[in-house]
Amino acid sequence: MSDSKILKIENLSAIYLVREGSIKASVDINLEMEEGSITAIVGESASGKSTILEAMTRSLPPNGRIIGGNVFYRRDGNYVNIMEIEEEELRKLRWSEIALVPQAVQNALNPTMRVFDHFMDTVVDHGVEWSTKKVWDRASKLLDMMGLDGNRVLRSFPHELSGGMRQRTLIALSLLFDPKVLILDEPTSALDVLTQARLIRVLDEVHRELKITMIFVTHDLPVAAELSDYMGVIYGGNLMERGKTEDIIGDPKHPYTQALVASLMSVVGDVEKIKPIPGEPPSLLNPPNGCVFHPRCPFRMDKCSVETPPLFKLSENHYVRCWLYEK
Amino acid sequence: MKSDGSDVVMSLKNVSKIFVKRKFLRRSIPFYALENINLDIEKGERLSIIGESGSGKTTLARIASGLDKPSEGSVFWFGREITKLKTKKFKELRPKVQYIHQNPYASINPSRTIFSVLADPLKRYEGEVDSIEKKVADLLRSVGIVPPEFFFNKYPRHLSGGGLQRLAIARAMIPKPEIILADEIVSMIDMSFRAAIVKLLIELNEKTGITIVMISHDIGVARYFSHGGGRIAVMLRGRIVEIGPPDAIVDNPIHPYTRALILASPVANKRLALKKRELLPKYNIQKEVWESEIMKMKGCRYAFFCPFASEKCQEEKPELTDVEKDGKHKVACHMIEEIPAWELESVG
Ligand SMILES: Nc1ncnc2c1ncn2[C@@H]1O[C@H](COP(=O)(O)OP(=O)(O)OP(=O)(O)O)[C@@H](O)[C@H]1O
Ligand SMILES: Nc1ncnc2c1ncn2[C@@H]1O[C@H](COP(=O)(O)OP(=O)(O)O)[C@@H](O)[C@H]1O
Ligand code: SF4
Ligand code: SF4
Ligand SMILES: [Mg+2]
Ligand SMILES: [Mg+2]
Q1: What long-range pairs does A275-281 form, CB within 8 A, spacing at least 24?
Q2: What is the pLDDT of residue B343?
Q3: Helices A115-125 and A163-174: angle between axes, nearest 10 degrees
Q4: CA A55 to ligand 1 center in whole angstroms
Q5: Which residues does chain A have within 8 Å of residue B217's beta carbon, measured at their own beta carbons?
Q6: Complex confidence, ipTM
Q7: Domain CATH code at residue A321
């Protein structure tokens, strides 16, 4: 079967076990990634964004549990279910096909090791037999592509690099084995605005050059909008809306997405039209019944606090989890 | 009173803060976290101070609030230099200036109930009053923590980050201050809350006439906060490089750094985002910052990244000067004549 989707996440659910009970961090998530596209997963803090990335790559912390769902990855024309493959195969898949750059990686480099040694270690760890020269050349080429002076950076210690340079170095490191899918958790959020703008541009260029599939998480809707082709909006552990980025920004359908777009304090547009969202995000330990957004929703109906809405399909690419779109 | 009739509640005159800390070629060289800051804050205004991390925003706010001392220069509250005040007088004025910390988790005692977080300072300022429950309830309601009675016996941990910031704002209002300096109070809270917290500050200012200084790294947040009569000051490495009302700073900026900040701020509209990305290099040379090179800068703090930089810029520090005679919009740049018309002006 020919299909342009490189990844399909189906009904993925995950929880964290804590003393007080279970945190429903990822509820019945459905997402698909077109090969070569960029998908942004947007949501506020603690909405469950990182959980999706960690669940789909089976790298949840020890108290995390996947309680259902499948993640299909297309490899040589066939789909393998990441949820079902052996540990050993998963390990191989992780760096060579699907690379994950985790959140808060500012301290991920060892301060006592030169940047080059990080590349060399990664190669050795994976039992790849490359000569030192080959590793240097490949690393320096990747760093150059990230807009850095590769040879200088490779000779440096991490503390000599600025935050933005370190972030790009880590992305270069994750590209070492030429993965097909690059997953980034909050790649820009620790950065200042000019450094962030630079990284967005670099990621865009890398994407174009390598034709890699990219998935990234951010809490910043405008950042998601600038860099992505497709977008998924997460709220309280649920995927509320997904579709083409321009459709979601230009004509958001879900009441939460609409409220979020209207509350953006941007440098452009009419300030008088900025509209704060009343209320508070839900607790994932005791989420509200029915639609998780119902306590804050201006369109709430009786049904909304009782029954959880399914993901309704509006068009080929546009899905919304809201009773307003029940046919 | 200033010559135009407005009251100045606070001013900084030639304020610098020096930390001797950066090592360069084995020598410790003094590092200016603030350099020659001159700023008059007018009664009832909404002033935003923006800048990237390390630009000196917190240092400025703490010195203005009397929490730290400047290395050079002086701070005036209500026309009086604070170091020259008698201890008694300083103690009397102290509560009129309130600083709100950027991290609500660090500034509120987690082991006290929400009621006592507010009731204790209320008693301190107003003495024992019989209607204390009502006063606490009114305060909570005024910052949107409702229903207030529900929260009386709860603890700060029962509030979200945004809720905690509301509580911090309520507490700061207790001594009936003349001025509040709120340091990055929206940067640690959820995006769906941010506009609501900024709106709360706007409403407090409009209802009570209190002067509010809001510090942020986000120029969009500053634009919203200061619209309708306020001002925005842009800081770069310890200096104010441009100051004026939002329609000058955001819609008609002059300083190349201010322009770069605006062009670098992400926007949801993709077409506009592309246009901004195209324009950014005109105002910002994207090159790597190796700390050792930055330390050598003598003149304009932006010269390293500025496409308009001349020899003079490398040597001499530009001072803030008026763009128009009304004195509302000021810029510190040697090359104002060379800066082209602003391309993003009418967008949005
Ligand atoms: N190891 C863990 N144990 C218990 N709860 C956890 C754990 N990791 C995450 N959680 C909780 O699960 C929920 C979702 O967390 P997640 O890290 O996926 O959110 P996020 O959207 O990535 O947030 P952020 O923007 O802060 O990174 C949150 O309520 C969080 O507190
Ligand atoms: N106590 C201190 N000792 C040494 N350096 C400091 C101290 N406080 C601040 N700095 C330095 O002064 C500069 C300005 O800091 P700060 O005012 O916190 O900036 P901002 O609030 O804009 O991020 C930074 O380079 C910071 O590292
Ligand atoms: S399902 Fe109901 S409460 Fe939820 S977003 Fe739609 S209208 Fe609002
Ligand atoms: S003074 Fe010179 S270097 Fe500084 S912003 Fe103006 S033109 Fe650029
Ligand atoms: Mg996360
Ligand atoms: Mg600060």
Answers
A1: A275/B195, A276/B193, A276/B195, A276/B196, A276/B198, A276/B199, A277/B192, A277/B193, A277/B195, A277/B196, A278/B196, A280/B160, A280/B162, A280/B163, A280/B193, A281/A44, A281/A46, A281/A47, A281/A235, A281/A236, A281/B160, A281/B190, A281/B192
A2: 87
A3: 20
A4: 12
A5: 192-193
A6: 0.90
A7: 3.40.50.300
Average pLDDT over residues B3-27: 79
Which stretch of A90-94, A229-233, B124-128 has the lowest confidence by average pLDDT? B124-128
Q: Is A289 in the B-facing interface, judged by CB distances under 8 Å?
A: no
Look at chain B and report how many structural domains it folds into: 1
Residue A163 lies in a domain: no
Atom of ligand 2 nearest to the CA of B51: 22
A269 in contact with chain B, both atoms CB, cutoff 8 A: yes
Taking CB atoms and a 6 Å cutoff, what residues make up the pocket around ligand 2? B 19, 21, 33, 51, 53-59
The model's pTM = 0.91
Residues of A in contact with B196 (CB under 8 A): 263, 276-278
Residue B204 is assigned to a structural domain of this protein: no
pLDDT of residue B126: 84
DSSP secondary structure code for residue A35 in this structure: T
Amino acid at residue number B7: D
For residue A190, the model assigns a pLDDT of: 79
Whether residue B10 lies inside any domain: the answer is no
C-alpha A291/C-alpha A294 separation (Å) is 5
